[in-house]
Write a structure and sequence with these properties.
Elements: H1 2-14, E1 22-27, E2 30-46, E3 52-59, E4 62-74, E5 77-88, E6 95-105, E7 108-115, H2 120-123, E8 145-155, E9 159-166, E10 175-183, E11 188-198, E12 208-220, E13 223-233, E14 241-252, E15 257-269, E16 276-289, E17 294-303, E18 308-310, E19 313-316, E20 321-329
Antiparallel strand pairs: 1-2, 2-3, 2-4, 2-20, 4-5, 5-6, 6-7, 7-8, 8-9, 9-10, 10-11, 11-12, 12-13, 13-14, 14-15, 15-16, 16-17, 17-20, 18-19
Amino acid sequence: MKKAVLASAVFAALVSGSTLAATVYKADGTELKIGGRVEFRGDFNATDKGVEIDGTMKDKTRARLNIQGKTEISEGLTGFARYEDEQAAGDSELTQRYMFAGLDFDGQAISFGAQDMAAVQVSSFTDIGQFTGLQKYLDASADHTTGVVAYRGNFNDALNLQATYKANSEDDADSYGLSAVYKLPMGIKLGAAYSADDKQVSSSSNDDAYQALFGLGYSMDALYLGATYSFGDTGEADNEEFDVIEIAAQYKLTDEAKIQAIYGKTTNKPDGSADVDYDNFVELGGYYSFNANLTSYVAYKINSGDKVTSGTETTRDDEDTIRLGLKYAF
């Protein structure tokens, strides 16, 4: 019985998307589910990077569709797969998010294809808002990354270990990651991850980019608190070090309503130049669920990051952002 629980936990983590995915086929040990979302997102006053909007609203509406399946091969051995695409408003093309298949051996899973790198299980401690996700800083610590071989193992429903390797045929830029999350009985979870990219940044330089990440989470009844901190180097020729911090708090007021307060900051430290705060913000959010399928929200992002330009274009600034959203999940 315990082995079945562990295998289910690993499978759920691998194919997690919409919790409302509908089972369209289930027979003879094989199961197929379809899920997704359609989500209106409108940014007012400024983009999520704090750049003032020309006009009334920047439309960030998106839709996702995922297909996931599993099949029992023998006792203790399960095959699984997941496919997910996203389409942005005004874009006729689909963007691939996940496309992987694998085998689960009693809670020890190996998978191949476009999927999350190992650090994501730690960065998710604070990636709960509209503007979070700062810890996915390198290719080696990003989500839905192509060309990944992954091991994910769950032990006694308390310790989760992950190892990922991304093979890149271009620019000698393979990536790898290792992570561990341990859950304590009193609602505390601890996480640590190490990610690295091999970068060929110039003909005379072959520096490695790396990121060390640490996380702490705490849940008690309606309250959730999370904090993540990382440091590392981008591997660029000017030895650009960085550190990233996210702190998140969420409180569930009722079964339908919850509020959030989040702080995030990303600082790059290039040699010979002043530090640059690419991100420095406070996010305040409120969410209301009409039912299990439909959720509305408003998020206010107070930007204080440094202004960044590329040529004549401003790519980051310090204007505040207001986001309104309405999400239908299925």
